[in-house]
Amino acid sequence: xxxxxxxxxxxxxxxxxxxDENITFIDLEASxxxxxxxxxxxxxxxxxxxxxxxxxxxxxxxxxxxxxxxxGTIGIAIPHTDADKVIKPQIAFASLKSPVKFCLMGTSDxxxxxxxxxxxxLKKSEDQLTMLQRLMEIFEDQKLLSEFAExxxxxxxxxxxxxxGLK
Amino acid sequence: xxxxxxxCGTGVATSTIVTGKVKSWLEANGLQNxxxxxxxxxxxxLSRLDDYDIIVSTTLVxxxxxxxxxxxxxxxxxxxxxxxxxxxxxxxLA
Lengths: 167, 94
Description:
By secondary structure, chain A is of the alpha/beta class. Chain A has helices at 33-46, 54-64, 128-139, 142-150, 154-163; strands spanning 24-28, 68-71, 74-77, 90-103, 111-121.
């Protein structure tokens, strides 16, 4: 199928709440990126937000198309997979107790130490653009990212998500 | 009108963000009528890259096409985005 025409890629004031199921981990302990991905994907699956093929999809995709991003001193990753493995759109968040290595997006061998993971369970629809753009605004805000990395409580995390316009 | 393809691994997440940002940038620079945007996933596009005038990718592309692809990652992190927009602009006006 041909890609969308520009006129079809519109920003809509989407009200879909991507963090409403509270799939969040503070100081997640993970031995490597696969372990972190598995734990987060399992949590999305347990909440019936994704199909059982989601985890494998994310792991395979991460190998072929890495999602690590380096923002100043902070490494983040946005693992995700195809929309057909998603039941209800959601974003799972984890701050890691110790960073794990992801490959940088657009490379096959450059690694980055990741301490924040936003796992995206997305469907292909226009209303997720607003939310994704807000998420990216966080990524461009070094100070806010540090606050996410340093946040140690569920309440604090809620506040940060609110502040970022994500909740 | 130039055809500008924005692609990523799944055609869902990062290409959506980059498409949104490129669209806003085109409008801010009065270039929206010079370009038609397409968003897709790399696996669907590799065989027909010649259909497009300008290609932005957030994901790794095969070496044989590398030279004509603009790296879209700067639009995700904000780092180096001005240089990236200059590259797109140069190709739109070429």
